[in-house]
Sequence to fold (160 residues):
Amino acid sequence: MINSDPEGIEYRMIKSVNNKKSTEVRKEKQQLAKQQEQIEKQEEQLQSEKNKEYDPIDYFSQSSKDFDCKVLDKYIHNDTNKAKEYILQYFIKSSSEDIVYMWNHDKEAVISIKTTDIKSKYLTRNKAPKFSAGDWFFNNERNFVDVEFNLNESRIDLQS
Fold:
């Protein structure tokens, strides 16, 4: 018997091959889209970690010892990131440029100290040429706290 519709069979075969190819192409596109999505998520995570804003309160007053200039000096010469964290455990800027708050572990209290005293006694210029603790803290560390007083509350605990 002679095939009466040779173009139709060929057309259906081509269509079948094209359907298979388009299915494969669709799957590849889906895989690429998933990969692109994963890459974007990874880039987003890296960017958020890179730009992560830390809360200085996370560090402040977390030390179990009093501030030691020798410890800071050791960190400055070995690991500047640890030096920054060490500084943030003890010092936080106030909204007033004249005052810095310092954690005093022995007294278990936060004390306010003049900025000039912090610069001259605690965050002095080191011999390390690559990092200056005072310059970093006063020029690059952007976080500060603003102390608020509620005049309607007693400053003294009157509980017996």
Notes: Residues 1-52 form one domain. Confidence is low (pLDDT under 50) at residues 156-160. The chain has five helices and four strands. The helical segments are 6-50, 69-78, 80-90, 115-122, 133-140.
